[in-house]
Design brief:
59% of the residues lie in helices and 0% in strands. It has five helices and no strands. The radius of gyration is 17 Å and the shape is globular. The two termini are 26 Å apart.
């Protein structure tokens, strides 16, 4: 694992399926604080409100699994949760506009690739279908 990869501390609760408010909210607040500290150490900007809103979405409308995100989860958060719950649409639009180019750069930066992405990218570059006939 690279130094820049963020992982919650050992013992940090990440599953809040059907958890009541008085259990989830303090856990969410601890997670946001730890994430902010990590972002500062990495010199990465972070908007605590956005992180909190995404965690609220996973708890209230999702499955409560805070550390498991699929592309459709993020799509639902951006296209359903934020429009329904966030009064300041300019904040979200500004964030998305600001992150567009840096996101594209980060996705193309091979130094950020994990092991699986590195090899899958190499396979595709060489014309090998990673989902080809050897798939089990």
């Amino acid at each position: 694992m690279r130094e820049s990869d963020w992982v919650p501390s050992a013992g940090m609760r990440m599953v809040y399926t059907s958890a009541p408010d008085d259990v989830f909210i303090p856990g969410r607040d601890r997670l946001v604080r730890r994430f902010e500290r990590w972002a500062r150490r990495q010199r990465r900007p972070v908007d605590p409100f956005t992180v909190e809103a995404l965690l609220d979405h996973r708890w209230a409308d999702g499955d409560g699994l805070l550390s498991r995100w699929q592309p459709e989860d993020l799509e639902e958060a951006l296209l359903d949760w934020f429009p329904r719950r966030c009064a300041d649409q300019h904040l979200l639009h500004g964030l998305l506009d600001k992150l567009g180019a840096p996101f594209a750069e980060a996705m193309a930066d091979q130094r950020r690739y994990g092991l699986a992405k590195f090899w899958a990218t190499r396979m595709v570059d060489e014309g090998v279908d990673p989902y080809g006939p050897c798939r089990h």
